[in-house]
Specification:
It contains 4 helices and 10 strands. By secondary structure, the chain is of the alpha+beta class. The chain is rod-shaped, with a radius of gyration of 46 Å.
Length: about 290
């Protein structure tokens, strides 16, 4: 008679078979998964900017401190700095330390602040602000970077005199805006109203402008950006410009009759003419 196989042995054998099958299936799955990942990554490598060495906080990014490394796309951070983007990051300061060999990300950089107004001035230049109204600011159409002439109109001896005060002056700011198209912080784009102009002047021009503000009415005149011509600083009577100047009086002396001045004028003798000498009476010789 055949001996009966113990039940426990049968269960153990079946469990072993299932275990071997599961192990084979798991190994097969992992192998297929690894092959799939490897095939997916082939030809899908990205490039990232990495630090050559450890960089401390406050270090400005320059080309000699970074390198380009090939990184699998799946491992590349979504905000990593790519070689094509490095021009935008060049010169920025690190707000967080960077480890050598690791891709740099945008969040590691300090937020760029706009350049100060003084940084736009060349050495020896001065920024001077003057108040303007809608008329003297060309109805608010001036832009930072425009070039203008400033005309000064003063009253002297009951005459209004107009003369060019400054010529070819660069506008640094209109109100608080320092760049064309810049928002002033209130949601208004450039082209709206403003009540001040900030100009790029030499020290002598700044002194003349401050002095003129107290004595004259200033008017801005827009010029072409490539127009570098200058006009002579010659004062002009406003009435003469309009052809309303009174005629010049002829030289002469008034003739007074009975205490009343006659408007007729008696011409004065020319200094080149001499009076005819009076003839002396003849005397007979004794």
């Amino acid at each position: 008679m055949l001996k009966r196989v113990p039940r426990n042995l049968i269960i153990l054998a079946v469990a072993s078979l299932f275990g071997l099958g599961a192990a084979w299936l798991a190994a097969r799955y992992l192998e297929e998964r690894a092959t799939e990942i490897e095939l997916r990554q082939q030809g899908q490598m990205g490039h990232a900017v990495v630090a050559k060495t450890d960089l401390a906080v406050g270090t400005p990014l320059t080309r000699d401190l970074v390198a380009v490394r090939e990184v699998p796309v799946e491992w590349l951070h979504s905000s990593a700095i790519t070689p094509e983007q490095f021009e935008r990051a060049a010169g920025a300061v690190l707000a967080q330390p960077a480890r050598g060999g690791e891709p740099l990300v945008w969040s590691q950089l300090e937020e760029r602040r706009p350049a100060t107004l003084s940084a736009q001035l060349a050495p020896g230049r001065r920024a001077t602000t003057i108040p303007v109204d809608e008329t003297s600011s060309l109805s608010g159409l001036l832009r930072p970077g425009d070039r203008i002439d400033l005309l000064a109109t003063v009253q002297r001896d009951h005459h209004h005199l107009t003369l060019p005060l400054l010529q070819g002056v660069r506008v640094l700011a209109t109100g608080s805006r320092t760049r064309p198209g810049e928002d002033d912080g209130a949601g208004d784009l450039l082209g709206g109203s403003f009540d001040t102009l900030t100009l790029d002047l030499s020290e002598d021009e700044a002194t003349r402008l401050v002095a003129a503000r107290a004595l004259a009415r200033l008017t801005a005149v827009l010029r072409h950006p490539r127009d570098t011509s200058t006009a002579p600083l010659q004062q002009t009577d406003a009435l003469a410009l309009l052809g309303l100047a009174p005629p010049a009086r002829e030289a002469g002396v008034p003739v007074i009759y009975g205490g009343i001045e006659n408007p007729a004028l008696v011409p004065t003798p020319s200094p080149l003419t001499r009076p005819t000498p009076r003839a002396e009476p003849a005397h007979d010789p004794d």
